[in-house]
Write a structure and sequence with these properties.
This protein is α+β, with helices and mostly antiparallel strands and 777 residues long. The protein is 36% helix and 17% strand. It has a 7-stranded mixed sheet with strand order 7-6-5-8-2-1-9, covered by helices on one side. Strands 10-11-14-12-13 form a 5-stranded mixed sheet, covered by helices on one side. It has a 5-stranded mixed sheet with strand order 26-25-30-27-31. β28 and β29 form a beta hairpin. The longest helix is centred in the middle third of the chain and has 25 residues, at 302-326.
Length: 777
């Protein structure tokens, strides 16, 4: 970090009197040391993590090595104490460097080097600011730590301690070693502080790459999200003006200086923080701006404020450009809906995203590749009302007849939703469509009412209907006639018909075909049965029932308890056991097996989840089938697939399509999948990165490891053997085939190479120089 501590004020001072340099009192040294070991840091543990890790990376830069820095948690049995070590494999320190550089406050080798993070000469002593109670009395503590360094074949061990007047360094040992040069800073820590160290590692090292955390095993008795976040399994996106890793550190634009994240004081900058609510870090080189001596915050000089303001403008501009470029890929009507309904969501190659809709208006987005860009586009709700009729049946909701209710188990009629694309995708279980004029069949409509209470049937309108002329003119701001002189639709209306057909394909994919609905015979018979009020004595009767998912035998259930159960009950006969068992299993795999009611207490006559949200699969005897009509939500098992499975079709299809080639990809030797190879062979980088991005995205979206383990039951409901790959997936498969062929061509050559361990984490320059000469790619 380039700085000049000698010329803090170069301004000449004129004086007519005598001048004299100011000095320090005899005990000033002790006071200064106290300041820089105890009192300067508001967050000692965070400072230790930041400063010692930064020193490790500086050592790697000085030694020009690409090894990862290791942060290790361990336990010293001899000392009976936990410790955390910060280990580098850089230059190491000679005894002279330990004594005359490391052992001197404000002495640094980095002050004129803008590639290294340090510069003040105090960071390496920060562990002295961490005070551990010794338990021998009030105010008694220990803050010593160990320095172990390998230098030119000799391992040196030191203890750094506070001392009465000033910190001291005592040599503990020196011995021959064959280990690589490098340094370990080992800090004893109290057990109660370990999780604080973990949290600070997550926060302070957020933008540090190539760090290995060793020994930080999750504690089941004290498990938080710390263990999940303390990992190197992430990617930092490096744009021109900013870094982006994720949205779990800071909500607003901040600074990344020498890998260290600093929040911005927007009040000092004189700008509104709400204009910069993006979780990205401004890219700055070391030395561009200053930090306070504690390195806990930025030093806001006039030059720094001016620079930061210009950087904020650059970040905002680049984000706007990135969003505009992202929207150039909009082609289909569904692409358009997704953008309009979630406008401003900026996607990144690392699978993360954030919304920037506040800095760009929809009118400024380039929709030039959109197939319907020739016209002013209404929103999805307006288009739906233009293209379709939506007739409501069953129990009439207390909303507009063109609205769709979120008919959940709570039957909340106030949660009405209009006919938007999002509703069509997410809330379509009570939506049906008909390609023909609706045939009102009393029994079918009664069955649908029992299933959904309120349901809607969607039909297409005739766009060429002359009565729609004014509506079309207003929506699209056009004056074209609906039909031409020959009575045929105009070119513009024909385009609208194409648009309607594309929208209808979405409707058909998400909704149920009304004409294909089959009413169960049990329902038909039940309507004919005597539905008079059941007597109290009748309700006290019990019948034998087998509950799937729990005890294998039968259980006698009181009819009254069965009738009061307000959850879906799917029932069948003994010969339908296989279908009932499969339905119970597939529901547990695709949805949630925790809500399957699988136990009934005969003594208390209670279900294990009675009254709660759940589902039940039961077998009843043929002569007891008649009682199912009195249950609140009892359905034949034959209806289960139509009611539940279709919801997961797209997700399951995508998951198993990926599985068909993911295993092949990972069977390709790591040599051809790692970053080093992609850097060596840029022609492969785009193809391999695209596969990895797809795999990561699919794994994150469908984190269902149990799906693969239960493929046999999923295959009963989905045709996994005949999945058709998309064009993108076919391209991935071709790339994998090419990679396999390349691997086979290089097999004999690679067998003579010593392939380094851990290729996917870092590269070995020497190995890749050789590989570049001998590999065929």
């Amino acid at each position: 970090m380039e700085m000049n501590l000698k010329t803090l004020n170069a301004q000449a001072i004129a004086s007519t009197g005598k001048t004299k340099k100011m000095g320090m009192s005899e005990d000033a040294q002790a006071i200064v040391f106290q300041m820089f070991t105890k009192n300067i840091y508001s967050n000692p543990i965070g400072t230790i993590v930041r400063e010692i890790t930064s020193n490790c990376f500086d050592s790697h830069i000085e030694a020009k090595v690409n090894e990862p820095v290791v942060i290790r948690k361990g336990f010293d049995k001899l000392a009976n104490t936990h410790y955390i070590s910060f280990i580098d494999f850089g230059v190491g320190m000679s005894p002279d460097r330990v004594e005359n550089i490391y052992g001197i406050y404000f002495k640094s080798t980095k002050r004129t080097d803008n590639t290294q993070i340090g510069g003040f000469g105090i960071g390496g002593k920060t562990p002295l600011a961490y005070r551990r109670s010794t338990g021998f009395g009030e105010g008694e503590y220990d803050n010593s730590f160990n320095l172990i360094t390998n230098y030119e074949g000799i391992k040196y061990g030191y203890v750094i301690y506070e001392g009465e007047d000033s910190p001291g360094i005592a040599e503990l040992f020196q011995e021959p070693t064959t280990e690589h040069n490098g340094t370990e800073v080992r800090i004893p820590v109290l057990e109660k502080d370990i999780n604080t160290f973990k949290r600070e590692m997550v926060r302070q090292l957020y933008y540090f790459e190539n760090v290995v955390f060793d020994g930080f095993v999750a504690d089941e008795n004290y498990k938080t999200d710390i263990e999940e976040t303390l990992t190197n399994d992430y990617t930092i996106v490096m744009a021109k003006s900013f870094f982006f890793r994720g949205d779990d550190l800071l909500d607003n634009v901040h600074v990344c200086l020498g890998r260290v994240a600093y929040p911005l004081d927007y009040s000092v900058l004189g700008v509104d923080s709400s204009d910069y609510e993006f979780p990205v870090a401004i890219r700055l080189e070391i030395g561009e701006i200053g930090v306070t001596p504690s390195r806990e915050s930025l030093n806001y000089s006039e030059a720094t404020i001016k620079l930061l303001k210009s950087k904020l403008i650059a970040v905002k501009k680049e984000i706007t450009e990135m969003l505009g470029k992202q929207y150039e890929s909009i082609i289909t009507l569904e692409d358009y809906f997704k953008v309009k309904n979630n406008f401003g969501e900026l996607e990144f190659p690392n699978g993360q995203s954030f919304n920037v809709g506040s800095i760009i208006e929809q009118k400024d987005v380039d929709f030039s590749n959109f197939k319907y860009s020739f016209t002013k586009m209404p929103n999805d709700k307006q288009l739906f009302r233009l293209f379709f009729n939506s007739n409501v049946y069953g129990k009439k909701p207390r909303v507009s007849r063109h609205s769709w209710r979120n008919d959940d188990d709570n039957n909340d009629e106030n949660s009405a939703l209009t006919g938007s694309y999002d509703v069509l995708i997410d809330k379509s279980r009570n939506l049906l469509y008909s390609d023909t004029e609706i045939q009102r069949k009393i029994v079918k409509m009664a069955w649908l009412k029992e299933q959904h209470k309120t349901y809607y049937i969607i039909t297409k309108k005739n766009i060429a209907d002359i009565h729609l002329a004014n509506v079309i003119s207003d929506l699209f701001s056009v004056d074209d006639a609906i039909v031409d002189a020959t009575g045929q639709p105009t070119v513009f209306v024909q385009s609208l018909i194409d648009m309607q057909d594309e929208y209808y394909e979405i409707v058909q994919r998400q909704c149920t075909d009304y004409n294909a609905v089959e009413v169960p015979q049990d329902f038909i018979d039940g309507r004919k049965a005597n539905t008079k009020k059941l007597s109290e004595e009748f309700r006290k009767m019990t019948i034998p029932v087998k509950l799937f998912g729990g005890y294998r035998g039968t259980t006698r259930i009181k009819l009254d308890e069965l009738f009061k159960l307000n959850v879906p009950i799917y029932y069948g006969l003994k010969e339908q056991d296989s279908e009932l068992s499969a339905a119970e299993q597939i529901f547990g795999v695709l949805f949630n097996d925790d809500i399957i009611i699988s136990h009934y207490d005969e003594y208390y006559h209670k279900f294990d989840q009675a009254g709660k949200k759940g589902i039940m699969f039961i077998r009843v005897a043929a002569n007891n089938m008649k009682y199912m009509q009195y249950c609140q939500k009892a359905y034949p098992i034959s209806t289960f697939k139509a009611k539940y499975i279709y919801r997961k079709t797209d997700q399951v299809t995508e998951y198993f399509q990926a599985q068909n080639f993911v295993s092949r990809f990972y069977n390709v030797p790591e040599l051809y999948r790692c970053k080093g190879f992609m850097k060596l062979a840029p022609a492969w980088e785009k193809r391999i990165s695209a596969i990895q991005k797809f795999i990561d995205k699919t794994a994150k979206k469908n984190s269902k490891s149990e799906w693969s383990n239960n493929k046999y039951i999923i295959n009963r409901y989905f045709d996994l053997a005949n999945l058709k790959n998309t064009k993108e997936q076919e391209a991935f498969i071709q790339t994998i085939t090419d990679m396999e062929e390349m691997s086979e061509l290089n097999k004999d050559t690679v067998s003579f190479l010593k392939v380094p361990y851990g290729l996917n984490d870092y590269t070995y320059e020497g190995f890749w120089n050789i590989a570049k000469q001998v590999l065929v790619f």
